[in-house]
TrEMBL record, chain A:
GO terms for biological process: transmembrane transport. One of its GO terms (cellular component) is plasma membrane. The keyword DNA damage does not apply. This is Peptide/nickel transport system permease protein/glutathione transport system permease protein. It comes from Roseibium marinum.
Automatic annotation (TrEMBL), chain B:
It is found in: Cell membrane. It comes from Roseibium marinum. GO terms for biological process: transmembrane transport. Signal peptide: none annotated. Keywords: Cell membrane, Membrane, Transmembrane, Transmembrane helix, Transport. It is a multi-pass membrane protein. This is Peptide/nickel transport system permease protein. Its main location: membrane. Residues 93-282 form the ABC transmembrane type-1 domain. Belongs to the binding-protein-dependent transport system permease family. The chain crosses the membrane at residues 25-50, 97-125, 137-166, 214-239, 259-282. GO terms for cellular component: plasma membrane.
């Protein structure tokens, strides 16, 4: 177990170093960012001044070194556009993103776990087929199309739901649905497969043979055994899929979260913000993945009790 | 002597082209839709009724056939600059197809080569490749795409680069796993005994047996690449106007959603048609090839 944990942590550390370096070299290889931001109409002296201010006149090695130091201190300097500390901008956006994410993940679990169980139990009947077709096709619908259709139907045509911002509980409905689309499809499939593996086990027959009601057999003996695999898969998938989904969905609904910020800073080339935003999201995802990995190993006695 | 016949009795299934007769009606529809879309994309200049970038400001924002204010000839309506939506969709589909195909092939070449090398060479090289795969899996690809597009600018070349990087790790994983399995097989040993060079074994004996899982992965990956491309173009990070892909048509048309929803709905429907068809075909091929590629 200890070796396993150490290996996971080392892997996580390497991944972090790679993404940190990738972000730095990607943004520096493209030339001088000051030119993108300031454009025309600036005097030579002002340009020099700004380059010196942002430390862009040092050698690439020195810049990399300063950059690493700033990563560890969490100090990323000022946004090119807003002239506010980057960390302040990104952190200010974290809570709205987190709220939306929690809402989407809860919705996904509430919908897709029961659907997956149904699809597994009734796999030969029409119920199972319908669920699987929906889950299957849902995986092929981009989040932005769901978002746009929702806006068209519930926002503009029916006038039921607000289209922009995060002011009230009603504001959560459409973004949540748009992010959840692909997640529901994926998690329903996982749940079904995990349940199918369990349903054919001998202990399920034993549980039925001793006269337990069917729902107890399914929930207590079936779902409980499927849940370990399920949780690990959900943990790994949700972090990645949700990060991808919330970027585009937040942009559609002008949700004041990190996803919207990333898109905007990418379009406007606000590199400090983009760097810090990409890094924070990547780090969160990587840490969640490693945690899930270790938790999964801990839940599985075959790994937990293994020596070496 | 072909390796394909030798392995047919073992786990490594040889690639056989699935037949029309094995397909159920859903798959048949998907096949026909897919073929139709390919034909439309290839023959775009012949089919499109108008030049996709021809503006006509008098006939702006006209709705499709069957609605009030419909203008003759513009079956699916016109957009905010009076351009024919049908023609733009046809050309957009063509470009989306081209981008996705280029991206898929690049990803396949990168991932396939690395996977093949890792599987055959083993040792440090294998650890290195698989380490890279793990890192790639751990980082959400959207972030990498945003970063690359912001830094290198949005152009056709950069878009192809981004799509090309996408998905390489899946190919690498699958190819490596297959190769490691195949390399234990008697026919490889026989080839070695017969004096075949490692290169010959790799390309002549191992590669043909990996075709089947690669084809399946290629198809499944294709629909993801279409989604990625449309999403990035939708956000305004893809190919720049006036050139359009289906995704950027949805993105720009968004501003006219309340008054002229067809500008968005038509390309959105085209995207769904494409991803549905490809996804169904990919799933069918996976069933036919009977390989457990992933636990999804």
């Amino acid at each position: 177990m200890l070796t396993y944990v150490l290996r996971t942590l080392v892997k996580m550390a390497i991944t972090l170093v790679v993404i940190v370096s990738l972000v730095f070299f990607a943004t520096r290889l493209s030339g001088n960012p000051v030119d993108f931001v300031l454009g025309e109409g600036i005097t030579r002296e002002d340009r020099e001044l700004l380059i010196a201010y942002y430390g862009l006149d040092a050698s690439i090695g020195t810049q990399y070194w300063r950059y690493l130091a700033s990563v560890f201190s969490g100090e990323f300097g000022l946004s090119f556009l807003e002239r506010r500390p980057v960390s302040q901008i990104v952190l200010g956006r974290a809570w709205p993103s987190l709220k939306l994410l929690l809402s989407a993940v809860s919705f996904t679990l509430i919908v897709s776990v029961p659907l997956g169980i149904l699809a597994a139990i009734y796999r030969t009947s029409i119920v199972g087929s319908v669920v699987m077709v929906i889950a299957f096709l849902g995986y092929a619908v981009p989040a932005f199309i769901i978002g746009i259709l929702l806006v068209l139907i519930f926002g503009y045509t029916l006038n039921w739901l607000p289209v922009i911002g995060d002011g009230s509980a009603l504001h959560f409905i459409m973004p949540t649905l748009a992010i959840s689309g692909m997640l529901v499809a994926a998690i329903t499939r996982f749940t079904r497969n995990a349940m199918l593996d369990v349903l054919s086990q001998d202990y399920m027959r034993t549980a039925r043979a001793k006269g337990l009601p069917e729902w107890i057999v399914i929930l207590k003996h079936g779902l409980r055994n499927a849940s370990i695999t399920l949780l690990s898969v959900i943990g790994l998938q949700i972090a990645g899929l949700a990060a991808a989904g919330s970027v585009v969905v937040e942009a559609i609904f002008a949700w004041p979260g990190i996803g919207d910020l990333l898109v905007r800073s990418a379009i406007l080339r606000d590199y400090p913000v983009l760097q810090f935003g990409v890094l924070s999201v990547a780090i969160v995802v990587i840490v969640i993945n490693a945690t899930v990995d270790i938790a999964y190993a801990y839940a599985d006695p075959r790994i937990r009790l293994a020596k070496g | 002597m072909t390796d394909v016949t030798q392995t047919s009795s073992s786990r490594g299934t040889p690639f056989h082209i699935p037949m029309w007769s094995d397909a159920n009606w859903i798959v048949r529809i998907a096949l026909l839709v897919g073929l139709a879309l390919i034909v439309v994309a290839l023959a775009a200049p012949l089919i499109a009724p108008f030049d996709p970038n021809d503006q006509s400001l008098i006939s702006r924002l006209r709705p499709p056939l069957g609605f009030e204010r419909y203008k003759d000839g513009f079956f699916l309506g016109t957009d905010e600059l009076g351009r024919d939506i049908l023609s733009r969709c046809i050309y957009g589909l063509r470009l989306t197809f081209a981008l996705a195909l280029a991206g898929s092939i690049i990803g396949l070449l990168i991932g396939g080569t690395l996977g093949l090398l890792a599987g055959i060479a083993g040792g440090v090289l294998e650890d290195l490749v698989m380490g890279m795969v793990d890192i790639q899996i751990a980082i959400p690809f959207t972030l990498i795409a945003l970063l690359i597009l912001a830094v290198m600018g949005s152009s056709l070349d950069v878009m192809i680069l981004v799509l090309g990087v996408y998905g390489w790790e899946q190919y690498a994983r699958i190819v490596r796993a297959e190769v490691k399995k195949l390399i234990q097989m008697p026919f490889v040993e026989a080839a070695q005994a017969a004096g075949a060079t490692p290169l010959r074994i790799a390309f002549r004996h191992i590669l043909p047996n990996v075709v089947s899982p690669i084809v399946v992965q290629f198809t499944l990956n294709f629909s993801n690449i279409v989604i990625l491309e449309s999403t990035l173009s939708f956000l305004g990070l893809g190919v720049q106007p006036p050139t359009a892909t289906l995704g950027s048509m949805v993105g720009i048309g968004r501003d006219y959603l309340p008054t002229a929803p067809w500008i968005v709905l038509v390309p959105a429907a085209a995207i769904l048609l494409l991803t549905f068809a490809v996804q169904i075909l990919g799933d069918w091929l996976r069933d036919k090839a009977d390989v457990r590629l992933r636990t999804r």
